[in-house]
Amino acid sequence: MNTSTKMLNPPQIAEMLGVGVAKVHGWIESGELTAINVATTSGGRPRWAIEPDEFERFKRSRSSTSTPKPAKRYRQPAGVIEFYK
C-alpha cells in the first residue's frame, strides 16, 4: 500500500459511480473490487479502504467496449446467376 495516496471508502466510490453503498460492498465481498480492512478491532464491523489505483483497475475491467458487428452476408438464391455486378 502506498501511504502517499489518499484511500477511498465505499461511500465515495458509490457516489462516483452512481450506485448504492451496498453494491460497492457486494463488489468487495465477491472479490471484484480489492479493498483493505482498516478497522481497529478484529471481529467487528469492517472499515474498507480502496487504493485509487485499484479503483481505476476496477473501472477499466467493468467498462463496456462494444465489438463491431460482422457484416451481413446475403445468400444468393439457388439457381440464379448474376451477370452484372
TrEMBL record:
This is Helix-turn-helix domain protein. The lineage of its organism: Bacteria, Pseudomonadati, Planctomycetota, Planctomycetia, Pirellulales. Residues 7-62 form the Helix-turn-helix domain. It comes from Aeoliella mucimassa. InterPro entries: DNA-bd_dom_put_sf, HTH_17. Residues 58-78 are annotated as: Disordered.
